[in-house]
Amino acid sequence: MFYSTDGVHWRKIESSLEVSGMNHNALGGFLSLRIGLCSIGDGTVRFRDFRYKAIE
Questions:
Q1: Beta strands 2-3 and 11-12: pairing type?
Q2: How far is it, in rounded angstroms, from Cα 33 to Cα 19?
Q3: I want to staple 54 with a disulfide (CB 3.0 to 4.6 A). Which of 12, 17, 32, 39 is the partner?
Q4: pLDDT tens readout for residues 19-28
Q5: How far is Cα 56 from Cα 53, in angstroms, rounded to an integer?
Q6: pLDDT band (50, 70, 90) for residue 55
Q7: Do 41 and 52 meet the contact criterion of CB atoms below 8 Å apart?
Q8: DSSP states along 1-56
């Protein structure tokens, strides 16, 4: 997971996880992990026109 305080420079959060191994269901084929958006701290945030589309 990454974060930015200015929208230009991005830093990796130290406690992020590598989850590629969790993106498979042995009985039902491949699944799709979804992106999570969050805002932490003082101030405001606006997520506009965000779209999620799984790679097929």
A1: antiparallel
A2: 9
A3: 32
A4: 766 666 665 6
A5: 9
A6: low
A7: no
A8: -EE-SSSSS-EE-TT----GGGSEETTTEE----------SSS-----S-------
Compute the distance between CA of residue 31 and CA of residue 54 in angstroms, rounded to an integer.
Answer: 9
Give CA–CA dist 10/3, Å, rounded: 5
- Which of 20, 40, 38 lies closest to 30 in space, CA to CA? 20
The token duo for 46 is 């606006």
38 — pLDDT class (breaks 50, 70, 90): confident
pLDDT at 45: 87
